[in-house]
Amino acid sequence: MTETASLTTSDGKPLKxxxxxxxxxxxxxxxxxxxxxLLFVLVTFxxxxxxxxxxxxxxxxxxxxxxxxQAWFKDHPEGSDIDExxxxxxxxxxxxxKADRTAGVAGTRINYDIxxxxxxxxxxARKADTMKPPYKDAILATSDKWGxxxxxxxxxxxxxxxxxxxxxxxxxxxxxxxxxxVAVPSDQAVYKKLFWRTIVMSAEITVLCLLLxxxxxxxxxxxxxxxxxxxxxxxxxxxxxxxxxxxTSWMVLLQQQGVINDLLVWLGIIDNGHxxxxxxxxxxxxxxxxxxxxxxxxxxxxxxxxxxxxSYVRAARSLGATSWTAFRRVYLPQTLPGLxxxxxxxxxxxxxxxxxxxxxxxxxxxxxxxxxxxxxxKSLNWSLAAALSTILLVIVMIFFWIYDRIVGIDKMKLG
Amino acid sequence: xxxxxxxxxxERTWHYSYLTICALIFLFLMAPILIVIPLSFNxxxxxxxxxxxxxxxxxxxxxxxxxxxxxFGMQHPEAPRDWSFWMDFWENAxxxxxxxxxxxxxxxxxxxxxxxxxxxALGLTRPEMPxxxxxxxxxxxxxxxxxxxxxxxxxxxxxWVRLPMLSFDGGVHIEFARxxxxxxxxILAHAALGIPFVIxxxxxxxxxxxxxxxxxxxxxxxxxxxxxxxxxxxxIMPGVVSGALFAFVTSFDEVVAVLFIxxxxxxxxxxxxxNGIREQISPAILAVATIxxxxxxxxxxxxxxxxxxxxxxxxxxxx
Lengths: 415, 319
Description:
Chain B: It is found in: Cell inner membrane; Cell membrane. The complex is a heterodimer of chains A (415) and B (319). Chain A has 415 residues and is mainly α. Chain A is 69% helix and 1% strand. Chain A is built from 19 helices and two strands. Chain A has a two-stranded antiparallel sheet with strand order 1-2. The longest helix of chain A has 41 residues, at 15-55. The mean pLDDT of chain A is 88. With 319 residues, chain B is mainly α. Chain B folds into two domains: 60-92, no CATH class; 97-313, MetI-like fold (Orthogonal Bundle). Classes of the chains: A mainly alpha (415), B mainly alpha (319). Chains A and B meet through helix 2, helix 10, helix 11, helix 12 and helix 14 of A and helix 1, helix 5, helix 6, helix 7 and helix 8 of B.
């Protein structure tokens, strides 16, 4: 040991130190190569995701436009009387909102909690300049909604830019008038159901993909390479074809006056008056998405099946197993890594699908992505969209973590 | 897969039903892609085969939907097909404009993703690379994170960030513009989405790369730069090109980020298709689809040729 420790390089440095220094240099060089891309992805992708996460707990639409009320809420703890001083603060803020034209912004924020309050803000702000004390009477004269304790509770909640209310909304919860967290009435509860449907539909699509992908992968792995190459093109062509093209084709095939219905009527399987409804519902989404995601199961299954030596099944047969037993007890267990990799990948991808459900899904074939897009583009409740996105992201990341544990992200392959 | 001579009748039946099942699944895979091709030549505005088409009557077929693609958005669609007609087409036709955008955005994003991705892959495959798993996870994440979430995040960030950009109204001057609604914004977004594909294909190629070739080059007197450009680069080129093609297709096919962060001037082919499908679906969409299928066949052929070339270069013979 002492002898090894005293080994030195030609210029007299201890060998261990010289090796460590050289390793450190090479590590630094490797890192330097990766650094530009890492920086690029951080700025163009990770930071935006971070900002989206921030948006889900942060909304200053009200707190930045109503500073006087914000101060009043700070001085008067929950449960204080809504007295003249509160209304005076409200009047001061409404006057400022009118000058800055921000009443709509503030109203939108409160409207997320209590619908119908946006117009309350805009209409009262219009009259704010002419108001004189006592403000309580002046404001209540414009609309008696201002006397509603729920409105005041919502304003108190919104006076802090940080809130978990959007997450509560995203799991069908809300704050009751006394500030307690309660579930929303069941006829308004949509999100938990939608998350559940997204998971169930993704699972159905995954199972279908595995069922359809398995025989194909088995065929490709067990025929001569030349033929497998040709058939592989039939698998890869859909993979390379535009998503919108494939979705369009399914719309053409599945619609009531479409090719499949025509064919079935012509064959006499169904009656002309009873054409199947295969589109604008869950069936349409599942069929089209199974088709789109099928190559993602075939490819990993194929690469696993290629490595399974045929001698194991032959050995099982020679030991007296029937072909079914040999398949079930010997072959199938060896394909599990491929089933796991393909299944998880399809499940992860299906969870986040947006385009296909939006085009062929109709009302009951929508997934959580479509709801996020709805809140981003139509209802403009961006914080709720961000909260829903965060929950979806967490679910996807859990499955990605499992994928990493089972398959390893560095084992991911394309084509 | 051939059936042994001693197969029982039951095994025989099962074998043939298995082949039938496989044929049906292949039909399921291919039918939606092939069906749009004949339907795009439909003379009628229907999405199904007319009686004339089924009887191969030439009157059942026409190029009217392709004609509509060309003239849509043009100033003088009825003009004779001379030089000025085609200039009008190049300048004004809607599908031409979105095709130009798709190509500009696709190529720029691909170049960014491929250059940065290849350099990073070289670092990632070095044995002494620290935090390899964690860094790979970050670089792959744009492929795993649902596109709607990426687009939402990019919408918030890209509408908020202002970058100095050259502006050309009259004179050239620099102004601070939002990334959202600019070519730069959508190119950056698409580059980020394409990076995982470059990383995956190039690291796969590099993992089969024989490092002793670099040492051999060095021992013959090549400096690291020469060794890289003369030895490493030619060998990993097929992997780089197929990664680049994946990145290009990702951008070329992407619609959600375009929906969220592109402005009116940056509409792409899939974005225009999305409009067409949502509003009033006409067989003109099928004509676009047919052209895109042809493009994807070309791309697939290129990737397959490259893969075989790569295997040949690395000495792996297709068995």
